[in-house]
Description:
The complex is a heterotrimer of chains A (248), B (364) and C (256). Chain A is mostly helical and 248 residues long. Chain A is built from ten helices and no strands. Chain A has one domain: MetI-like (MetI-like fold, Orthogonal Bundle), CATH 1.10.3720. In chain A, α3 packs antiparallel against α8 (157-194), α3 crosses α9 (201-210) and α6 runs antiparallel to α8 (157-194). The longest helix of chain A has 38 residues, at 157-194. Chain A is globular, with a radius of gyration of 22 Å. Chain B has helices at residues 2-21, 45-51, 54-58, 75-84, 96-104, 149-160, 175-184, 196-201, 228-233, 235-253, 258-265, 272-278, 284-287, 294-309, 326-334, and strands spanning 24-30, 65-71, 90-95, 109-119, 122-125, 141-144, 169-172, 189-192, 206-210, 220-227, 343-344, 350-352. In chain B, α2 (45-51) crosses α10 and α5 (96-104) packs across α14 (294-309). Chain B contains 15 helices and twelve strands. With 364 residues, chain B is an alpha/beta fold.
Amino acid sequence: MKRFSPLLVPLGALAIWEAVSRLSRVSHELLPPPEKVAFRLWDGFAHGGMTGDLAASLLRELSGFVIGATGGVALGLLLGLSRPANRLLGPLFLGYRQVALFAWVPLLSMWFGGGEQGKVAFIALAAMAPAAVNTWRGTSTLPHSYIELSRVLMFRPLDYVRFVALPGALPAILTGLRSSLIAAWLATVGAELFLDVAPGLGGRMNEGRETFQMDLVLASVVLLGLLGLTFSRLAVAAEKSLLKRRAA
Amino acid sequence: MTLRAAAVLLGILLWAAPSRAEPLVIRLGYPGIGIDNRQFAGGSIVATAHSTHAVEQEFANEPDIKVEWTFFRGAGPALNESLAAGHLDFAAGLGDLPAIVGRANGLKTKWLLTDTVRVTIYLAVRPDSGIKRIEDLAGHKLSQFKGTNLQLAADRVLAAHGLSEKNARFVNLDFANAIAALSSGDVDGSFGSVELFSLQKRGVVSIVYGTKGDDPTFGRNSAVYVTEAFEQAHPDIVQRVVNAFVRAARYTADEKNRDAVFELWSKTGIPADSYREDFANETLANRLDPLIDEYVVARYKDQAQRVRDYGLLRKDVDVDGWADRRYLDKALADQHLEHFWSTYDAAGKKLTSGEVEATGTVTH
Amino acid sequence: MKIRQAGSRVVAGIAVPLLLLGAWSLTAREGWLPDQILPAPGVVMATLKEFIASGELQDATLISLERVAKGFAVGAVAGLIFGAAIGLSPRLNRLFGPTFLGLAQVPLLAWMPVMILLVGIDEALKVILIGIATFIPVVLNVAQGFRDVPPALREVGAVLLFDPWSMLMQIVLPAAVPSVFTGLREGLANAWQTVIAVELFASSEGLGYLMSWGRQLFQLDLVLAVVVVLAVIGFALNWGLARIEGRLGRWQLRPA
């Protein structure tokens, strides 16, 4: 029974949705019943080329995530471990963090074009920030005793990073990576909205929005949510196995 | 002697050849996409040209020349940015507002031919709202997406029918959210074009007004432009591209091809029937007219002035010096189409009748 | 001594931005990028002045700030409660965690039609959407903070025979403070980004609207002017949060 408790809330929501659909006067155009959405999902895969969209979006997201998260962790390490870097780049990064990604679209499409490269660049930018922030946090709040100890033991800076800082900051870094993954997924949809047209789940969702086919919108949303969730679960599992080694 | 001459000639050719072997890519951009991410357009000369591969066919026998189309999801603004970045040579089917804005901001283009004129815009309301005419909107809420040429066109229509900020509330929403808001009752009216017809069929909206039949200066327009840089470097290519567009225009304005054209446009994902309804009581040639005549020039001047008045632009736009009719005139002459299309004056009254009217009268 | 320290910090902080400004100026002057894509700093400055003079910038800023304040408050409070709940109780985590994670992956744009149906198109829509955007990172970080208390600290609590309540108040809560603040700061950054996105699609006022207006009308100087304002205000808000955290940090626990 325990295993299935995560399903309680979604199933409950599904039931409410079905009830609202049947009992209220809300137009089915605006809020399609669950069956319609399910059918649309099935139809999308069977006839609508949704598999292609899915693959395209996934590829973009993963590429962008890997690039952005790596860059973000590196930046976070720099900011957290190096006093001068912190002083010089910290405020700039914090300021940058506050600016909506939308503002960079013209520059991005100028440098990378509006095709795949531009989209991956957009996604990478989105993924970078959470990774950097959390890594920065994780490395800057390491207990002072760690630093002192490593000085006593005459660790070289690189060794310090490898053997002390990284493992110590690992939980924070991993949280950052999880946020980064989510940000990358959301940015994938954004990239497909703001940049050139190409196959993708985000594009599908937009198609639904623009032709007012709410069943398509909701089907894409369900798919996006499920996929994102799967990724996050995988990430958590990976995190657990990594942390096991750390505790050991 | 001849052998030496031949050798010299060969040498020159070989020396010149590498620079000619580099493929030239003709980059055309269209501001918009079809439904479902489809890279197709509809309702215009450019749409027909693209779908029938008119430009590609013109250069089919030249391996050194490639044709590349890009469809811009961000419509006018994104296309302008691409032009500014030097990533495009031709802007095909760019609407009046983004074109004017681009020119005012220093984009150097030449207006080669017109793509569409007198495109009808429609007012959509909820079927059960009780609004039957455009005047009934008084006291209601209307959605507009500010800064688009749809908004400017709609404002003219509203003003002409006595509606303004004083007796109607305006809400800024993009098209997709506008329809959702219309459905949920948060707004009472929204403007749009051909995409509204399938919504009407589904019972989501009712179309209660169209600019067709109203003042002939209402409606939207679009055109084909080339960058000055490309035009100076390759005038021969520009001529051939214009030739291709004019050929497509000839095909698409011919009433005999009416059904075929609607079917062609349905590649966008908008059904042929929607185009049929959009063009009801109207000849194809009424909209699909590549001429740069008094009417369309007056429309652009008018729009430029309006845009200034609205405060959307801080600079003036020179419309007169924009058009370069040479290519169009040559294409029309070569294809014997000088008198094919009718011409209109600034107020929209017909000046001359074109041969196209013999191809068929208005059908439903 | 302290003043000198503070002064050198400020200098270090603006060194790189000044460098970037210089690079920007140079790029504009040399024309490496077309000036419709990257207007010169002088042009952006002039646009800023123009919009401040007309009052439009202040109005837009206040409107956006108000929305962010309301949305952030709603999202942060809800996020703190929900995050603490699933962080502290494995059972609640199992019940709600996956659903939350799944919903967190749904983009803002997808929420809009549903929200329009539920709450209409007025302020409530924007506040709720901003709230959702705040909620997600707050929950993620707070939950992690409550869950990942260092074992050393827990041992201390066990040795001192703390009851669950003392454990919570004296060990877990203080140890979670850094994560809570990371979450709040991420939430604030998200809130700012979202107010822009929301104003793009469904509003006639605010900084996001100005930005969208600028892009629509090919006036990227306006877009950049808004970017500057956003960065400055966002930075200020962030700094404010950091100061608060610094104060609270006095009670923060760290393993020695």
